[in-house]
Design goal:
By secondary structure, this protein is α/β, with parallel strands linked by helices. The protein folds into 3 domains: 58 residues, Nucleic acid-binding proteins (OB fold (Dihydrolipoamide Acetyltransferase, E2P), Beta Barrel); 149 residues, Rossmann fold (3-Layer(aba) Sandwich); 63 residues, Ribonucleotide Reductase Protein R1, domain 1 (Orthogonal Bundle). Helix content is 30%, strand content 23%. The strands form 3 sheets. The chain has a 6-stranded mixed β-sheet, sandwiched between helices. It has a 5-stranded mixed beta barrel with strand order 1-2-3-5-4. It has a two-stranded antiparallel sheet with strand order 6-7. It is globular. The relative contact order is 0.12. Bound molecules: guanosine-5'-triphosphate, magnesium ion and zinc ion. The site of guanosine-5'-triphosphate has 21 residues, from helix 5 and helix 6. Magnesium ion (MG) binds next to helix 5 and helix 6.
Length: 291
């Protein structure tokens, strides 16, 4: 028996990376009987039948399960935002951070296209998020800045690249591992989107260890269904204020004795982050009323 990771399923076959090769596998009959599904990212035990073919004997319990894209055991989300062209969509970034945290996936923010903006600008933006306790990187797929740091983050883990269209997700992956040859640029934006509905999810094995999934860009993302008092839990810089405001149930929207206002004044909390918190809170309150 060998231990492996499912990298893609296609036409009733399952491609599993184990040891130094990718095995074409079928599932043992019992999976059909118990109706157990198997996803990219699943860790499995396989029994080799020949040089390349094997049978999946069992699937290990999942640590996590992402729905879009459908991948099991994702360790981290590399959220790619470009510093310019397209300009940073902070609202989308903050939504993605909420989503990652909600799914139990560690977010890493990658500020890309650093070659196109002054260094102070990259540092300013990444500083805001670093101070808010997120892991950030400044990268360029063109000049190679930060690529080694991204490699280190990806090593031996299962990661998903996410973010708006045109920010350089596929370009970064190509820079990380030139052999990947993922399509990039204006053309791929169209094809990538069009293909997305039919394309099977695939994990790309990295030659330095680990797996990544590239995803097509998107610009809209719903917040998870939260309760109003939970929204602050998804803004890391607000956690020190938990239970410290005058009212225990403080939602930090101008209540008497709210300490977050002070944090804003002394620059401990970034204003735009706070505005997004308020926006997400209002959205959540509105949605609560609909149920
Ligand atoms: N100057 C510069 N251009 C970049 C960089 N990264 C990507 N680009 C360019 O930005 C454009 C979009 O890059 P892609 O890698 O296709 O972007 P993507 O995020 O994969 O886009 P979708 O697949 O549509 O979601 C291409 O023309 C790239 O050459 C970078 O670091 N610096
Ligand atoms: Mg792409
Ligand atoms: Zn408060």
């Amino acid at each position: 028996m060998l231990e492996g990771v499912l990298i893609r399923g296609y036409g009733g076959f399952y491609y599993i990376q184990a040891g130094d090769r990718v095995w074409e596998c079928s599932l043992r009959g019992k999976f059909r009987h118990i109706g157990q599904s198997i996803l990219a990212g699943d860790r499995v035990l396989i029994r080799p039948l020949s040089e390349k073919r094997a049978v999946v004997e069992s699937v290990q319990p999942r640590r996590s399960e992402l729905i879009r894209p459908p991948i099991a055991n994702v360790d981290q989300a590399i959220i790619v935002i470009s510093l310019i062209a397209p300009s940073p969509d902070r609202r989308l970034l903050d939504r993605l951070l909420v989503m990652a945290e909600y799914s139990g996936i560690e977010p890493v923010i990658c500020f890309n296209k650093a070659d196109l903006v002054p260094e102070e600008e990259s540092r300013r933006l990444s500083g805001i998020y670093r101070r808010a306790d997120y892991r950030t990187m400044i990268t360029s797929a063109v000049s190679g800045t930060g690529i080694e740091e991204v490699r280190e983050a990806l090593k031996d883990r299962i990661s998903v690249f996410a973010g708006p269209s045109g920010v350089g997700k596929s370009s970064l992956l190509n820079a990380l591992q030139p052999g990947l040859s993922l399509k990039t640029g204006a053309v791929s934006q169209k094809i990538g989107r069009g293909r997305h509905t039919t394309r099977h999810v695939e994990l790309l094995p990295l030659d330095f260890g680990g797996w990544v999934a590239d995803t097509p860009g998107f610009s809209v993302i719903d917040l998870p269904r939260l309760k109003r008092e939970e929204v602050a839990d998804y803004f890391r810089e607000l956690s020190p204020f938990y239970g410290r405001c005058q009212f225990n149930s403080c939602l930090h929207r101008g209540e008497p004795g709210c300490l977050v206002g002070l944090g804003l004044q002394n620059g401990e909390i970034d204003r735009e982050r706070y505005e997004n918190y308020r926006l997400f809170l209002e959205e959540t309150v509105t949605r609560e009323r609909q149920y």
